[in-house]
Amino acid sequence: MIRPILRPRYMKNLLLSAALIGVSLATASAERPNLVVSIIVDQLRYDYLERFQSQFTDRGFGLFYKQGAVLSFGRYNYFPTSTAPGHATVLSGAPPSEHGIIGNSWFDKRTRKSVYCAEDKSVEGVGITGIDGQRSPKNFIGSNLADQMRLHLGSRVIGISMKDRGAILPAGNKPAGAYWFDSKSGHFVTSTYYTKSLPDWVVDYNNKDRAGSFLGTKWTRLLPADQYDYEDDAPGERPLPGEKKAVFPHTIGSKTNTTRSAVMPTPFANQILMEFAMAAIEGEGLGSGERTDLLCVSFSPVDYIGHAFGPHSHEIQDTIIRLDRQFDAFFDYLDQKIGLENVLIHLTADHGVAPLPEFAQAQGIAGGRYNAATQLLDLMGKLSDHFGPAKYFLYPKFSSGQLIYDHSVLREKKIPVADVDKFIREWAFDTGLFQAAYSRAQLLDGLAPGQIGRAVFNGFNGERGADMILIAKQFLIPTYGSGGTTHGSPYNYDTHVPMLFFGPGVKPGRYDDEFYITDIAPTLAAILRVELPSGCTGKPLVKMLTDPKQARIPAPPRVNRR
Ligand SMILES: [Zn+2]
Fold it and tell me: Measuring CA to CA, how many Å separate 503 from each of 32, 72, 152, 510?
């Protein structure tokens, strides 16, 4: 391990600024943690932590509630609230308008093809073949905290998730590694963007076939059944693949399964991620040196389970209670290995989720499912009736309410874009399904009023954005397979998520301040005293920092890295 060497010129400036703000350099350096752990729990709603708190341990989620900082009013400030934009925003502090990850996929008008957020045809899989291995962060625009930590602190960065986008996007542009789960082999894999071959510690973990060890076992409730809220067999729940009913106990595939996908929508996949995270700390020596390293882990199974059973199910409650125990073990490991006093941990989610429409209806709330394909066909027919027969959409899909016009057709037929905008907007309101509609022209000119308008504006990127964006009414979701629920809206059930901090630089307490997802990265940057990520639009919650002056301390000089 080489001690960071300060260059003389920077040393002079640093001493000067240290003198001005009255901080000793030795103290400043000692205050930085050895390891930052960035935890994203995919689809973790804020209310889960309040609802299930009496069933938590002291050192799982309790670590944040008892010894850390809890932001009770942390929300997403853009639309759409889907996985890739969330994972790209947390550590960049930038909304999709800046970092360009405007959805899990989007339509590229130049190539006339749909682009997956993490696709990169110039690379190949490592440990996996085919397109599922052709992944990198090349579609992400700008830098994030992982990049700033590498630049300023020489940090070693690792990203881990079941989902490729969950592993890749938080880890930044050039981490030491990003690993995701191959549902076929049950192995963690990567791409040639990161490395030519899997490190020994990854191969060793893969050889254990932990996913395979859960096949054929049962998922039962951890606590007695009467300690679970609501119904187990509720209308609208979607059974797991291979099961007929959406009730406990669940059977996790069978020993004869040739793939490992049956483990993914169960709490045991969180266990696998936790074990793999520990293997990464051991294998990469994270947090063991004088650097401040960064481990990003995204826990995907909550999302799979929430989509199938909804936020008021026994399955989601059991998953969160088990996740609390899994965190308890993980934080205990960090304490033994590195010492929790040397670890800065933040935990958040990439989005929430809507209740099952059937659950909402049972509560007397208007909600339901609409068939997006049927609606699009209706719109196409009405456009042809009004403007003359033609194919008006370049991409005949209605994904996240986004519509892409075929501008060559409009030019040919001499139809002004504004006329089509107006027609579609009136059609949308006429269906009774939509709350708002925003045209590309409106968004480019920044004319999207109100909180929803602002959210759509923050999620709109000029190069990649659609021609028209329709926002469905509250509690109304597009048909999503048979039953189940989804997320993506600008409403609080999708935007209100936990934002938790623990460790050096964090003043424990509950903070009810206005706080947005874009404020996490600048808050961490202030604690770590590194430069803000390039597209960051958020601001640190200064009163949560143990030394508010930290927020004003300039970034330290570059270090001499290996
Ligand atoms: Zn997600």
Answer: 10, 18, 20, 15
pLDDT tens digits for 260-306?
999 999 999 999 999 999 999 999 999 998 899 999 999 999 999 99
Burial class (CB in 10 A: 0-12, 13-18, 19+), 37: buried
**Residue 308 near residue 238, CB atoms below 8 Å:** yes
Domain boundaries, the chain: 8-358+492-552, 368-473
DSSP reduced 3-state for 125: strand
Asked whether 327 and 296 are in contact (CB, 8 A), the reply is: no
Ligand 1 is an ion; residues with CB less than 5 A from it: 42, 83, 303, 350
8-358+492-552 and 368-473 agree in CATH topology: no
What string of DSSP letters covers 408-474? HHHHHTT--HHHHHHHHHHHHHHHT-EEEEEEHHHHHTT---HHHHHHHHHT--TTT--SEEEEEPT
- For residue 43, report the distance from its CA to the centre of ligand 1, in Å: 5
From CA 538, how far away is CA 99, in angstroms rounded? 13
* DSSP one-letter code for 496: B
Residue showing tokens 């006429």: 430
CA–CA distance, 76 with 390 (Å, rounded to integer) = 38
**Closest-CA residue to 190 (of 161, 211, 212):** 161
Position 550 scores a pLDDT of 53
- Using the mean position of ligand 1's atoms as its centre, give its distance from the Cα of residue 546 in Å: 32
So which residues are the catalytic ones?
83
Contacts of 33 (CB under 8 A, 6+ apart): 292, 342, 343, 344, 503, 504, 505, 528
Spelled out in words, what is the top-level CATH class assigned to the domain 368-473?
alpha beta
Which architecture, in CATH terms, is 8-358+492-552?
Answer: 3-Layer(aba) Sandwich (3.40)
Ranges of the chain whose pLDDT falls below 70: 1-30, 480, 548-562
pTM beyond 0.90: the answer is yes
Compute the Cα dihedral for 502, 507, 510, 514 and give only its sign: negative
> Which region, left, alpha or beta, applies to residue 83 given φ > 0 means left and ψ of -120 to 50 means alpha?
alpha
| Cα 392 to ligand 1 centre (Å) | 31
Ligand 1 centroid to Cα of residue 353, in Å, is 9
Measured from the Cβ of residue 222, the count of other Cβ atoms closer than 10 Å reads 16
Query: Residue 519 in contact with residue 145, Cβ under 8 Å?
Result: no
pLDDT of res. 557: 46
Q: For position 9, what pLDDT does the model report?
A: 36
305 alpha carbon to ligand 1 midpoint, in Å? Answer: 11
Structure tokens at 227: 């300690």
DSSP-derived secondary structure for 392-423: -BSS---BTTEE-B-HHHHHHTT--HHHHHHH
Residue for token pair 């430069």: 531
Say how many Å lie between the CA of residue 11 and the centre of ligand 1.
Answer: 43
Ligand 1 centroid – CA 557 distance (Å): 36
Q: Residue 549 has what pLDDT?
A: 55
